[in-house]
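User: quick one, fold this
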Amino acid sequence: KEGNLVTLNSTVYRSVNTQYLEAVMNVPEREMALIKAGMPVAMTVDAIPGETFQGKVDRVSPVMDAGSGTFRVTCAFISNQILRAGMFGRFEIMFDSRENVLTLPRVAILEDESEPAVYVAKNNKAVRTVIKTGYSNGELVEVTSGLKAGDRVITAGKVAVRNGTLVNLITIDGKLVPQPKKKENKEGDKK
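Assistant:
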């Protein structure tokens, strides 16, 4: 306002270039060897749902923050007047790309054992099968060994299943499986 006094070293105004924006994220040290400048980055922001913004890793700090065990990664984005300075974003950095790999939903993996395993339906019985996993994107997990394409993995009701439990498949590949009809005895009760 007119007439206000400005103290020494106080900010009078802030100038922002909204054409080129930088996003700074703190990444765990275990990921340091994987992230390099120039890698593609995808960002989503809560303020603009359904839209993904593409950018690249601009700089990787050579210094680790000893207190948090993280290092700073700066990513660059072209905003096209949609992104604004100060928005909160979620990032995906693609380390590697693999095609034609066997995947399964993360919810199918038995987390209570020392090694990852799933229940596979074989001859109407649940068979505990140990697997080796690769990359994960949160919902899907790559399976590197232990399963083959076409194996029927139990994803729903796995907490009630044990090795050797009789199972009745309800859906396969999203399609309903015809269920056997129940027999009736002489009194009309269904069995």
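User: anything notable?
Assistant: The mean pLDDT is 82.
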